[in-house]
Structure formats: C-alpha cells, structure tokens
Amino acid sequence: MSNTSDSEPENLTRKLNDLSLNPTTTSTTTTPPNNTPQQQPYHHHHAAAGGGLFGFGDFGAQQGQGYQPYEEELLPPPPPPPPDFIMGGGDQQGIVAFDVTSKFRAAAGVTALELGELVKDGFFSLFESVGALEIMDPKMDSGCLAPGESLDEDYDVTRVLSPGEVIGIIDQMFCLEMAWYQGYPLSQTLLTNVYIDRMLEPEPMVLGDADFIRRKAVGEGETMHVVLRAYCLGVVKCCWYINDRIKFEHYYEEEDFVTNTYHRSLLDSFELNEINEELMAARRLVHSVRHTIGDQLAQALGFRLELRTAFLRAIELSVLRSNPDSLSLPWTQMEAVWEMIYKSRHLGTPVPEAFSTKIQRRLASTMPPRPIVKLSTEETYKHFKKLFADGIDVLNVLNYHDSQSLLQNFVMTFQSQKPQPLVYIRTLLQSFLFKDMIILGKLSIRHVIDDDLSLVVLPASKLLDPANDLVEAPHHWRFALAHQMETFRQRAAQSYLDIFRAFCQNRCRIRRTLCHSIQDWETVQLDAEQIDQLLQHQIEETPLVYPPTGDGGGGVGPTYSLPLSSWAYLYKLRLMEWIVQLGFELEIYAPDELGGMYWYLSELARSRARLVDRISFFTKHREAGQQAASPSAGQEAAFNQSRQYLYQTSLDAAITWEMADALSNLYAALGRLGLVVAPPRPYSTDEMRYDVRMKPFAAIGMPELPSWEVYKAATDRRQVETGRLLDDASLSLEQASRGLEVMERLSEKDSFSVGCFERWVGGVKGQTVAVDRAAVVVEVLKRRLEERGEDKKGGKELGLKVEIGKAVEGGHEWWVVPTIEEIDEA
Amino acid sequence: MQPPLFPLSRNNHRGRSKAIMNYDALPTPSSKPEATDFLQTLLNKNLRVGTTDGRMFWGSFKCTDSDCNLVLQHTYEYRPPPLAQLQSAAAAAAAASSDPQSKKVVMDMTSRYLGLVVVPGQYITKIEVEEFASQLKATERKQQQQSQQQQQQQQQQTTTHKVEIS
Description:
- Chain B: It holds the Pfam family LSM.
- Chain B: It comes from Podospora pseudocomata.
- Chain B: Residues 37-129 form the Sm domain.
- Chain B: Residues 136-166 are annotated as: Disordered.
- Chain B: This is Sm domain-containing protein.
- The complex is a heterodimer of chains A (826) and B (166).
- With 826 residues, chain A is mainly α.
- Chain A has four domains: 1-120, no CATH class; 163-259 and 268-351 and 374-392; 462-588, no CATH class; 604-826, no CATH class.
- Chain A has 26 helices and eight strands.
- Chain A has a two-stranded antiparallel ribbon.
- In chain A, helix 16 (477-503) packs antiparallel against helix 17.
- Chain A is globular.
- By secondary structure, chain B is of the alpha+beta class.
- Chain B has a single domain (23-93, 106-158), classed as SH3 type barrels, CATH 2.30.30.
- Chain B is built from three helices and five strands.
- Chain B has a five-stranded antiparallel sheet, with no helix packed on it.
- In chain B, strand 2 (56-65) and strand 3 form a beta hairpin.
- Chains A and B meet through strand 1, strand 2, helix 3, strand 3 and helix 4 of A and helix 1, strand 1, strand 2, strand 3 and strand 4 of B.
- Strand 1 (13-17) of chain A pairs antiparallel with strand 4 of chain B, so a sheet runs across the interface.
C-alpha cells in the first residue's frame, strides 16, 4: 500500500532545463510512463471497500466502512506522474512530441467536422464528460487566473517577525484549527497559512527541512522564526493524529468532518518526540530571550507552545485507554493554559497577509478557491473550552460499572449534549469503546453482553454460569447451554455493539441508523426465540401461566420465560422509542403531527412496560425458587441489581407514556381549537403521509404498527369533549410529575448512570421542566375555555397565541411543549 | 457502450494499425474522411495542450468537435513559474556563472492532477502528440532531432535569459 503514495503525483516538481536535453535533471521519483497505471489503484479501492481500515495514500484515503466517499475520491485515482519532459521536444525517456496544432485545427474545424459532429473514443461516453472540468471557466477551473493575477503568494516568509506578530499568527491559527474540527476542509482553514504551506511543500524529508525557510544552516534562524516554526510543527502533527484517528472510526465525510489533506503530507513521517523536542527547544529559547522581549510577551508565547505540547501529549496518551485520571492530566493542563492564552490575546498583532486562499490552487483539489473560514476569537475560545472539557469528560467512560450505565446513560447523555461534542471527541469515544474489539481497553464483548443479560433478564442464572464452558462431555446439559449461549452471543453481539456505535454519530445519523437497526433486532429476537426454546428444554423449565389468572389473564396456557428473546425485544422497543423521540429533537414532525407521534410513543412505552412486567414476573419466580436453595451473596446481589433495573426502566416507561399521553391530548385539543393549523397540502392525504412517516416501523411485526384508522381515531378522540381532553392531559401530567420526583431521588447506582450522574439528573430535571410547562399551558387553555365557551375557535376568539417548536431554555429536547401567550383582543 | 472494467492504459494502441507515425511527415488533412482519420489516430494518445494563459495540460485524448474543444482524461496541469521568479533566477544564474555563455536555468514547474477536463478550443495555443521514440523509424527519429535542434537554435537567438516553456 505504502508504495502508491510514493508514486502519487503530489509534490511534482518538474525540472526545467532550457536548451538542454540533459537527463540528469530527471526527477528520481517518477515512474516509467509506459506501465498501466490505472489498474493498480483500482484494486486498492476494492481492497478498501472490502473492509480494510488502513489508511493509504491520501487520495484514496476514506474510511473503509462504506460511508459516502468524498467527491474527489470518485474520480479514478491518478496515474503515476508523467514522464519528465520539456515542451517542444525532448526524448530523454523515449517520448517524442510532435506539434500537430495546425493540422488538428484544420482537421477539426475548417475542413471536416460539422457543427455537432464529434470524433470520440468508443469507450468514452459523453455522459462521463458531464463531470469534466472546463478549463478557463473561473467557476470550475481552480487554476484560472484573472488577468494580471499571480498564482503565487507575494508574502515573504523570511521577513523578520515581532513577538506580537507571532502571537497574532498563532491566534489566527487557533481560529482556523477550530473551524477544521468543526467540519470545514483544511484547504479553507489551516492550509491557507503561508508558513504552513511553505513548510509542507515540497515535502520535507528530514525534520530540518520542515521549515518555511529552507536550506539554512543548523542553529541559524531568527528567534521568532524558530518559535513560529515549532508551533507550526506542533499544529500540523496534531492535525495528522486527529485526522488519522477520525479516519479510523465511523464518521460521515463532509457531514461531520473533512479528512482530505489534498495530497499534503502532514508530517506523517516524523516521530512525535522529534517534534516535541522542537517545541521544547522553542520554549527554552523563549525563556532565554524573556529579558529582551519582555516577560509578558515571552509568557504569552510560552503558553501557546505549552498548549501544543500538552495537546500532543493528550493525543499520545489516548491510545492507552487505561487510567482515566492519568489520561486527563494534559487535558486539564490545556484547560488551564487556554484561559491564559485567551487573556493574553490582546498582545497579538494580526497578520492577515500570512493567510491566503491562493494556496488552494496548488492543492490537489479540483475546486476553485473558496474563502477562508473565519471564526471569531470568542467563538474559538468557547469551542476550545468545550473541547477540553469534553476531552476530560469522555475519559470517564473508562470507569466501567455496569452495562446499562455504559450505554444508555454514559454514551447517550454524552452525545445528547448541546452542542454535541466535536467529532474528534466522538471518535475518541468510539476508540475507547471498540478499539481492537476490546471494550474500554479491558473487557471482552462477551463480558459486557453477559453483564447486560444478567442485569435485564437472567440474574444469577445458570445460563450465564462460566462453569458451563468447562464441561467437555458433549451430552452434558451444561455443554449444551454453553454452546447455545455462544451461538446467541455471536448472533447478538454485532447488533448490540451497533447501538453503541450508532450513538457515537451525529444526531441525524443516529436516528437514521437506528431505523435500520430495528429490523436487525427483529431478526435477533426471532433467532433468540429459537435458542430460548432449545434452552428451556435443556434446563427443564416449568412453564407458568402469565399473566397470572387473578389479573384477568386467564385462558392463556402456561408460557415459558423466553429470556433471550425478551432481552432482544426490550432493546427493539427502546430503539423504536428513541427513533420517535429523536424525531422530536430533530424537528422532523410538523406541528399538526406532534399529537399523533406522541400517541405512538405512548403506545411503545406501554409495550415496554408490559414486557418489563413479564420479565419481572419470571425473574421473581426464579428468585423465589433459588431462595429456597439458600443463594450465595453474589446471587442475591445479582437479583437485587436486576430488580432495581427493572424497576427503574418501568418507572421510565411510565413517565414516558404519561407525558406522551398528556402532550397527545394537548395537541389534539389545540388542533380542535384551531390553535395548531395544518398547512395546506394539496398533493397528499393524511393517510399517505402516515404511511411514509411510519415506514421504518411498518416492517416490524411486534409491536405491529397501528393501522391508519386506529391511529386516526386514537389521535383525534372525536367522541371525547375538548374539556375532557384537557382534564386527561393534566391528570397524566400529574402522574408524570410524581414519577419524575421518584426518579430524581434515585442514587447514582440505582439510576444506572455511574460516571454520568450529573448529566442524567440534568435530563430528569429537563423533563420535569417540560411537564411543568405543559401543565401551565393546559391550565391556561382550560381557563379560557371556561370563560369563553367550547364553541370558540382560533387564537383570536380565544385570545391566545400558541407557538410550537421554539426551543426553550431548560426544557428537554424530546418533549416539544408549545408556548402559550394570552393576548387582549383590544 | 459499457465502459471496460479497467480503462485502457493511456499508451495502449491495440487495434490501431496506423498508431505509430511521424506526424511531421503527414500532409495537412484536406478532405473530410482524411480529417476524421487523422483525428481518429490521435484518440487515446497523450496530448500536451497549451493554453492562452501559459498553462499546459497533459492527458489522454478522448473527444473533439468542430470547435476544437478537447476532452482529456487523467489530465495533469503544468504551470510555469511566474515571470518575476524566472527573471530573478536567470539573473542569479548569470551572476553566479563565470561563463557568460551559460544561460542554463533550472526551475521547478508545478503540476497537479485534474482528471477529466474539457479544454475549449478558443483557448488552445498548441497541441502536441506524444509517441515513443523507440517505435519511430530510425530515419524519422533523426529528422525529428534535427528539426528540434534547429528550433532550439532559433530560440537561442531570439531569447536571451528567458526560460522557454511552451
């Protein structure tokens, strides 16, 4: 793989030797022109698509997971560089060029071809040519210069810089660096810096060459140049590491991040310690000149260099995945230094000339130059601050406590922060979670899945007993258990890990990926049911009547506990709820659809509650059975933990359905009162829209998607008076509020949010705020209806103004509560 | 037509009987079949196309029309160094060299990969086609070299310090 990057056409410099056919000027890196250049790179593309995760030459460098490739990567990979030649002749590599200009023109134009007639290669279709770049078209041809415009930068990198100017340049680079982290391409950010450009082009082979002023003697160099160079080295190396990390994980090119480096090698061949040494040397140098340039400036420069050192250190440590406390040291250091940097920003003198879009013309890109992305200093400050805070926070994931804290709470709450952590932090989270298929650097996948099964459905069960694996007699029941459980784990592991992986993406992609996952979980559930049936036979389980006859569930025969399929079903239901809830967060639903979607959410939450109830019933029965046989302390603890989890999740389901019911009723009432009006939709019917909206759920057999008629009737509740709707809503809100109070009192352990308790409590508080707000809206509506009568319609008659979808501080993203305002009709 | 699984190599002249020839010896096409034939022989060969702004494009010739618009595949762009740099380099070379006759200047010409491009006919200043010297007849090769040397001598007389790129 690596040899392709050598022959990539980057850094092509053609030696021109006038009037001489001297072959000694031939560049040694060129490959003979006569081989078949295209075939090799094509194979590379296939290899990459086949699941390789390796980075190869920049041009083909997309992550290997089959996400959208970058536009330019759709082009065939470039052939090796052309032969060295001199225009107008020169056969030093056995190539002769003939000038055919006049004959060509004569043939094409004057004598032969008529308008619209073409001479073309049979294998070349005109359809392909649609994608061709038109040369000299300023919109397409990035090399097209305006008259008198020079391609090259006039900026003189050798000019002497004052310390203030170096600070100014560095601070400007912070803004660009942050813009890159946020998803803008390098070409519009850091690579617009003239110093970095000169440093990287032509590609330095030894570290001494990695300088914007080349060919200077050792030890020579103006102090400020040395400082700026060291800083640039640090930045570029950071970029290389970050780019590399991101490319290795799942992310969405263009959407999240642009990994294209435009054939610039970001100092990949240099060791980190070499660069660290340069940074250290620069820091010493700054220290030694502090008397000449003044303490303030020297300190300001020192902080900037220190930040770079710490950043590189943080990156270096992050691969360890061991002790979060030691990993967080450089991040904490950066947090502190960043404040000092921000305070000393006034010392900098901006040097806008040191940044130019012209450099883009020399990058391997077919785009015409685009403007430099400029973040303001304040924004940059805030984003870096958040980056460092998230960098510390994400390390907490390494403190594994239990499977539920990890997924539902740590990953989910971490990702639901607004604004979402930067993609680098998200890829760090992914690498902590999955790198080398070792969860958090210390756990096997089996460990995590078994923990989760034990917590949810099988506390202290012999199905999960590690002793099963030790039995070698094939007819022993334990051997059969171990075998069946292993089959199940292999089946479910990928789907289970996919949930984690999905939650590490951007918000829109999470929802989209979950829509695919639920179908996967449907099959996991079916497969699990088969395994359950084999297992219940092996352990000679006695079927029980469920629901117990006293509760009006008579008539159904005894059933088995079906633990594995229950587990899968629980995940499927939660995924479905998350899809609907993310829909609210992402503002997918129109205001007049909100009521219906909340009704569906409530249905899903009720299904979850019923399932949890069933699981609890069987777990209790098993616990009672084991109690008779005096269980060990470990077994009892497992039962306790599982009971707590089932309690917590059924409480959560109850809160969800109560809140969803309340909002569904509220929106139904608002619709009736003409306070929420559907926009005119002349080309669709409600039923067709329902089909499209529910498409992800239509393929799911259990729970079955309600038919349009059922949905319509349940959403409108025609037979119920508007006043009743509002009464129902306030009743539900009361219930929800009571549930939330209980929820809020749960401890870190009991709420399964170890390591993210604060964020989890924040979520519960947000829900409480949403409930309170909804209650206020319902009260106002009720009062107005009593005052003015139920026959009134529209905001004017009722003297109300309702707004939906306005993000309100302190609420919860998943609960869209309308705001209501009383207006006087005067 | 289905494109081939792997694009033909850019120097692959399979199935073209008249692939190798000395273009200088060809008459200027005067009739339609002759002209089409001429253009057909150029297909899939590597052309060096000079444009009015001094750039040169090197790629495999795929298509042309009556306006002489050219479609080139797998194209590289070459750009001469700016004039100011050339002059200063030439001056430096002249100053450094003790031999006033020596006017050799070595400069970097930048290149980048562009892929598929259309060069509109109106901007084209020069079209050259590449052939393998080894496949020319010995006599033709000699002729070619001679004519080049003549050209160079002329250029030497007309230009003094200037690096000739196109």
